[in-house]
């Protein structure tokens, strides 16, 4: 009997530790997601400004391949930022769903350990969902920044070429 109580007490202590850690990891994952969203927003603004200013400069003027390529790369960076910022549906921890699921009359009576397990599994699933969403967004942000750097390099090369090569 004492072993069973001690095992139950140890189990509850493990569940409490795991639950606390799951909460911390979920907060960390949400912070990473917010950071990625901020980077994507900055990318969108920067690439949009560059693409817009280059497009205005190129209107009505003969231009070569290099300025056009730089503009296309900047527009690609804008597109990558938009894809990264596009709303996605991700798993959220909905307390109301957990309450209704555990109190539903057609579900057999659940014990406290069953509810603790359900809550812990739900927290883990939410954290995994946030991490998957962040990985996808982060990939598009990285692609966007690479395109933006290439666009800036192309624009700088175009400027240098225009300065060094006399126009006819």
A few lines on this structure:
By secondary structure, this protein is mainly alpha-helical. The chain contains 4 helices and no strands.
Describe the structure.
With 168 residues, the chain is mainly α. It has one domain. It is built from four helices and no strands. Helix 1 packs antiparallel against helix 2. The longest helix has 57 residues. The chain is rod-shaped and about 95 Å long. The relative contact order is 0.17.
SSE map:
Blueprint: H1 2-58, H2 65-85, H3 95-103, H4 112-164
Jot down its keywords.
single chain, 168 residues, mainly alpha, 4 helices, rod-shaped
- Radius of gyration based on Cα positions: 26 Å
Largest sheet: none
pLDDT < 50 runs, ≥5 residues: none
Q: What would you call the structural class?
A: mainly alpha
The shape, in one word, is rod-shaped
Count of β-strands: 0
Number of helices, where a helix is a run of at least 4 consecutive DSSP H or I residues: 4
The percent range for strand residues is under 5%
Distance between the termini: 98 Å
Q: How helical, in percent, are the residues?
A: over 70%
Helix-strand topology string: HHHH
Mean pLDDT across the residues is 83
Count of separate structural domains? 1
């Amino acid at each position: 009997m004492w072993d069973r109580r001690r095992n139950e007490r140890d189990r509850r202590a493990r569940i409490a530790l795991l639950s606390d850690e799951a909460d911390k990891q979920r907060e960390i994952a949400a912070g990473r997601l917010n950071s990625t969203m901020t980077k994507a927003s900055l990318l969108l603004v920067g690439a949009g400004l560059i693409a817009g200013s280059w497009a205005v400069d190129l209107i009505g003027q003969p231009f070569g391949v290099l300025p056009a390529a730089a503009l296309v790369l900047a527009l690609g960076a804008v597109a990558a930022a938009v894809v990264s910022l596009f709303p996605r549906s991700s798993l959220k921890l909905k307390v109301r769903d957990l309450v209704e699921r555990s109190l539903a009359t057609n579900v057999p009576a659940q014990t406290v350990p069953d509810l603790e397990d359900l809550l812990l599994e739900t927290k883990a699933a939410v954290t995994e969902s946030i991490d998957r969403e962040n990985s996808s967004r982060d990939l598009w942000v990285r692609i966007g920044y690479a395109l933006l750097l290439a666009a800036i390099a192309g624009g700088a090369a175009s400027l240098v070429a225009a300065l060094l090569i006399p126009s006819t």
